[in-house]
Amino acid sequence: MSRPSRHDSVQHGIPVLARRLATGGLMGCALISIGCAGDRDTHTYVERLGIDTVSVESYTRTADGFRGDVTIRSPSAMVAHYEASLTPEGTIARMQVDWSTPPENPDGRPPIGYTYTLDGDSATVELRRGTEPTTARIAVPPAAIPLVGKTPVAYAVLEQAVRQAIASGSDVYPAHYLSVVRGRVVSTEIVRMGPDSISFGFFGSPFLVEVDADGRILGRSGEQTTMKVVGERVNAVDIATLAADFASRDARGEGMGVASPLAAVEATLDGAALNIRYSQPARRGREIWGGLVPWDEVWRTGANAATAFSTDRDLEIGGAAVPAGDYTLFSIYTADSAQLIINRQTEQWGTQYDQEQDLVRVDLARESLAEGVERFTISIEAAEEGGVLRLDWDTTRFSVPIRVM
């Protein structure tokens, strides 16, 4: 991984939480003031995706370890309690994590727990799910850091990595995360970018993190990553009450759900069967065109895995020949124009774009919509001659004609 360039300020992309709370930040749940937390060992963080709260975490660190609680909302509300003990060198010796669904959602996901015990270059991992716990011993790099969930996003875990990086005295520190869910070690780099900022790699893009002189996290921005989340340290939050509220919303069918759910388009035009599979990101109060979807950069035309397109007949799309087969749809936008990219590579992640695999690029027409569209939506509609492919999001529609050959 190459070292990221120095960002002008890590606070770029880390909004002031107070402003968001003033406009409905925590879904109506009150914060409990405990005064300034700048010099305390107990810290609380709220993470958001656009205007939506996606997780809240609070933990306490001592000389011997740390313990905390986190609640997440997507795809449904769950709560984790974790406790970690440290070695005399400041690395993790043992960590136990227990996830559960609040009782307010009786149909929620079942509980799961795991315990990591680290000893030099190996770790014993106990997984508790159902009635039969399983235990495995795996090789790990020295000073490996167990995860609370699937990815290294828990603030306690990130702060542990930052502290180990500071203790190493190096500006670039290799952090190794141990994931029981993925069953492997996930490695990245903690990069010191200045006295108050660091970054860590996340699938090829940097999370930018603001820290104090002792390595305590003040906030972080994932706006340059595919996660797009932003978090900030706040006064204490009643996590149990908040988790109960989130779970009750799930039980009523009003929960957050998957951030970018899968969607399918199936259409028949003049005997041709057309299929599109993609994921639908939501607006969530964000600027879309020229913001979340930047100008002059290739976009995956959705979220998550690359958007898949197939046809069983030869087509003409925007005047360009597209033989029957399987493809991936990308797109690129400027303030004045837009193009749909039909690419031969298939079944890849949405950030894996190979221009050498382009079949054609065709121009997209642009028009304004009278009402905003919350989730990015692809559709194929019949027309007088063939049909039209439409991309709708926010208050803009992009379209291109399709004709069966």
What's the arrangement of secondary structure elements?
Blueprint: H1 17-21, E1 42-49, E2 52-61, E3 65-72, E4 78-86, E5 92-100, E6 112-119, E7 122-128, E8 134-139, E9 145-146, H2 155-168, E10 172-179, E11 184-194, E12 197-202, E13 205-211, E14 217-221, E15 230-234, H3 239-251, E16 262-269, E17 272-279, E18 298-299, E19 307-311, E20 315-317, E21 320-322, E22 325-333, E23 338-343, E24 358-363, E25 365-382, E26 387-404
Q: Descriptors for this entry?
A:
405 residues, mainly beta, 15-stranded mixed sheet, seven-stranded antiparallel sheet, 3 helices, 26 strands, 8% helix, elongated, disordered N terminus
Fold and architecture overview:
The chain has helices spanning 17-21, 155-168, 239-251, and strands at residues 42-49, 52-61, 65-72, 78-86, 92-100, 112-119, 122-128, 134-139, 145-146, 172-179, 184-194, 197-202, 205-211, 217-221, 230-234, 262-269, 272-279, 298-299, 307-311, 315-317, 320-322, 325-333, 338-343, 358-363, 365-382, 387-404. The chain is mainly beta and 405 residues long. The longest helix has 14 residues, at 155-168. The two termini are 46 Å apart. Residues 1-40 have low confidence and may be disordered.
In brief:
By secondary structure, the protein is mainly β. It has three helices and 26 strands.
